[in-house]
């Protein structure tokens, strides 16, 4: 187990800057998830931590030790790759033992560690097989096993579930969480799937264009997003955004209607964006609604119904209604919401705090 | 938007115009093909489509092989069969009649056995050097380096040259008054008769052959190296694997199928060595660089008394060796395909 501190970490490929001065501290035993859209730099950040890429500037400290120039092997980390990266010509046992053999560990100790990992991951019957004889989920377990046997300070996991089908992904997600609980190891996990991030993380790091947008616990990010990007990225279905302008103190004007938002301190007439989560709105008659909608799509999920609609200004708006509602496309409905569930962002997407 | 639609319309009308001749051609084929299909049935169409190729294969491969076998069972100098007499396996007996196969001079056909010895030596040394050089070159060219495309071309260009051109270029460099001796003389060294001294002649025959074919095998190995996922090397790096161990434990085992194909193809080509070596050394000095193919050519065509029977028997024996090597290559390829399909 280890803690990790990144101080103004910059990574450039030629003239292209991928990471723009990342500052981050990860505590011993924490499960931290890097999340963000494709190209945000999350995998590059993980590779920089792993030592597979050199930092262009800045510091990486593992247990206070500067490791910028320390090789990947000597950092005491282990990585689980998106493609699993199992050695195809070696058996599962050889895959697990390979790294330990490199460090000239006694054979008895290697056998003991391989057996322990195999027992923990339920892959004992597979030890003699080659990777091509395994299913996706089994390969995933072997890849994790290869990391476990090394007893690393930090586990680095690069989108480890993205090659699995949806059902298996849910199973493996739960197993990873259980593994973290039993090992109490520091884990850094990269994903573009916000559901994985929400379900696994102690803390989530949201990245965009090589910069950290926000760091916090899953619920902090869900309840108090720092900006419109984080608000839209965390939560499924994503948050609705409605353009409007600040009216008199403590109220906003949207689509010609004035909505009270107590505590809002914005200059009258300033452009603002309201953010409301689909779960935080209530359906009502169009004439009584804060926002009237025309239904464009109905998704019946059994326990709840997801309505996709359009406002009079053509903005899309999603509502998650409990139960199995009967709606038809083109139907007019209205939505209303409590002021405390509304997030307000300025023209640049920064959150406007309310007292 | 209108402009885009118009451009698309023009493009589509141009392509339909270009397609017209094909439409006409296919329409013209329709009637005869319908007739053939009615005549042979749908099941017989496969044979109909294969027939032209089988005809060419028969005329240029099967019939010559049969004639070759027939010649090897006859004696005399006549070209046509009616002037030749049946001798059974006598030609093979005289080729294989040897007191000690390791000493060509004890054999009835000492030139044949000398060429077998030369070919065996050539095959072992040339294939070893060629495969190792191709592997080394592929490993270097697979690395991130400046002007990688240029260097890859440099190694591949000799493959594009005809073997006769290769032989002539190197003869011009290595002959008594050639480029190499001119350079050596300039630096104060003595002139060496590169092609007239038997060990040097064999050395240069091997060197030139390696130079000429290196690019082809490098390309196969390079393709194999590039098919190894980069993730595996990164995993090995995380596992603390040293460079040499990475090569032995990751690269080499994963490159093994390609390496095996390269070895077998190189073996087949080395056994067939003729053109560039013949142009370069003419088999000399004496018979020190005469290979089996040259022996067959000279026995059957170059000697005043053309011994077509003996040459045919020698070519049949060489053919058996090549068939065995080809079968090995096919077996390796099939095993590899099965493995990949698993």
From TrEMBL, chain A:
Q: What Pfam families does the entry give? A: ABC_tran, TOBE_2
Q: What UniProt keywords are attached to this protein's entry?
A: ATP-binding, Nucleotide-binding, Transport
Q: Nucleotide-binding as a keyword?
A: yes
Query: What InterPro entries does UniProt report for this protein, alphabetically?
Result: AAA+_ATPase, ABC_transporter-like_ATP-bd, ABC_transporter-like_CS, ABC_transpr_MalK-like, ABC_transpr_MalK/UgpC-like, Mo/tungstate-bd_C_term_dom, NA-bd_OB-fold, P-loop_NTPase
Can you give the residue ranges of the ABC transporter domain? Answer: 4-234
**Can the keyword Transmembrane be found in this entry's annotation?**
no
A Gene Ontology molecular function term for this protein is:
ATP binding
Give the matching PANTHER family.
MALTODEXTRIN IMPORT ATP-BINDING PROTEIN MSMX, MALTOSE_MALTODEXTRIN IMPORT ATP-BINDING PROTEIN MALK
NCBIfam families, A to Z: PRK11650.1
Q: Which family does it belong to?
A: Belongs to the ABC transporter superfamily.
Task: Tell me the protein's name.
Answer: Sn-glycerol-3-phosphate ABC transporter ATP-binding protein UgpC
Question: What organism is recorded for this protein?
Answer: Microvirga puerhi
Q: Gene of origin?
A: ugpC
From TrEMBL, chain B:
Q: Does the keyword Transmembrane helix apply?
A: yes
Keywords, comma-separated and alphabetical: Cell membrane, Membrane, Transmembrane, Transmembrane helix, Transport
**By its UniProt entry, which InterPro entries does this protein fall under?**
ABC_transporter_permease, MetI-like, MetI-like_sf
Give the UniProt subcellular location, in the record's own words.
Cell membrane
Q: How does it sit in the membrane?
A: Multi-pass membrane protein
Instruction: Report the main location listed first in the record.
Output: membrane
Q: Which CDD domains match?
A: TM_PBP2
Which Gene3D superfamilies is this protein grouped with?
MetI-like (1.10.3720.10)
**Ranges of residues in domain ABC transmembrane type-1:** 116-329
Residues spanning the membrane: 12-35, 47-71, 120-141, 153-173, 203-227, 247-268, 309-332
PROSITE patterns cross-referenced by the UniProt entry: ABC_TM1 (PS50928)
SUPFAM superfamilies referenced in this protein's UniProt entry, alphabetically: MetI-like
Name the source's superkingdom: Bacteria
Family membership, please give it.
Belongs to the binding-protein-dependent transport system permease family.
Q: Which PANTHER family match?
A: ABC TRANSPORTER PERMEASE PROTEIN, DIACETYLCHITOBIOSE UPTAKE SYSTEM PERMEASE PROTEIN NGCF
Name this polypeptide is given: Sugar ABC transporter permease
Q: Which organism is it from?
A: Microvirga puerhi
- Tell me the lineage of the source organism: Bacteria, Pseudomonadati, Pseudomonadota, Alphaproteobacteria, Hyphomicrobiales
